[in-house]
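Minutes, project check-in
Item: structure for the 502-residue chain
Input as provided by the requester:
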Amino acid sequence: MIAGCVITFPENELAELPPEGETSQPPGLSNSPHPPAATIIPPKVTVPPTRQPGQPILTPTPDNQRMLPKLRDTEETYTVSAGDTLSIIAKGFGVTVAMLIEANGIADPNLLDVGQQLLIPAPVPNGSSPAYKIIPDSELVYGPMTVFFDPAAFIAEKGGYLSDYSEEVDEIQLSGGEIVTRVSREFSVNPKLLLAVLEYQSGWVSSKNPDPYFIDYPAGYPDSNRKGLWRQLTWAANQLNFGYYTWKANVLSAYFLPDGNIILPTTTLNAGTVGVQYFFSQLFDREKWESVTTSGGFNATYQQLFGYAFDQAIEPLVPSDLEQPIMQLPFEDKATWSFTGGPHGGWGDGSAWAALDFAPPGETAGCVPNNAWVTASAPGLVVRSNNGVVVIDLDFDGYEQTGWSLLYLHMASQDRIAAGSIVSPGDRIGHPSCEGGLSSGTHVHLARRYNGEWIEATGAIPFLLDGWFAEPANEEYDGYLVKDGYVIEAWDSRKPENQIHR
């Protein structure tokens, strides 16, 4: 097995940019000419005009009514397999754990037998979500307006429990501000939104002495395996992304609340609002959830911390006429690699299916060193390079939050290009590995973002690499690359059918 990757959360850092007109020499490029120096240009951010609360709210997504995906309307049966839990089964069938318990008369929800037959009831919705819009799309993603926001300074100014907090993450002691920043960058979720979640749920931002219960669960998710700020925020960011991107892909059919209520999203909402509604739907029963997602709920906390959310809107976040820059496959000319992972999550399983995986040549399977070179797919500036991650900013302004950016994951520490380096297409940036997350084998994971939004590999702007464009299949990690009538299907091993070369 060499293809699939389960994203964990590598340490990373923002680039220290070289002085204007200078470059940093990347390691491992002595046998290849370094690209010419480029001038760092200012970020392409236009500060939105301020609107007063109560004025008409414009959102970066249209309000046209949509058709929701149809809910399953028949009962089904399911045979329990090894590793199954009620939670996993419920999520797979679009029902709640409470519905499974009631339909099957389960006395102990922690005990399931392999081979056990479960009745899966048809979900029956009972109402629609509030129509109130909570945030614009650009306030959910790690987008252009975050350029002007310093999480650490804001946390210190508020002086709450978070300002004195630290936690060990991957054997490194990180402050509360460093954890918020890191989660924001990796999941590409706005740090202001994460801070507002912490403040609403636990008071960590402004209170020195939050309720003792929330010391372990600052985002309000009571899971003994998710104690501490790091695990709580990574869970929260993943849920926010899940609601946002499944709504944009029109595959989110309903909210399944813990009390068994099934609520249909109002069909004129924007994705940012749906992301917030979905997050809170994982935590609260109907009465509490509806109060949280209307004007006096979570929005009041957000506005108290950061002002009127729609004053910050970048509209549109992703232009309707956006085109992908010219890109090439992420390996050297005449090299043959394996296409091992079709469209899957850019980061975690909640983001858009923005990523493709490629494994280097070789006979050995598993996580083994490989000297093949990963190369830059487009010209740009390396703005992050640490612990398995390289991020290239394609508009050269030094910010991954603006314009196009490329994320490479599972990049070996040996010979990895330095932050601040300027690259041209085909320049060597490092070797594939299993670093930066759990992986079944050595490979590179490549994903695109625009203005902080993960761009679906097979959506309106399909991933296009050397003329090969991505096409979808029915399951995550499956999929195809197509060019001039040739079709390559992703496989989680090296075989003749998934070989691809430049």
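Outcome recorded: The chain has three domains: 1-43+323-502, 76-120, 137-312.
No further action items on this chain.
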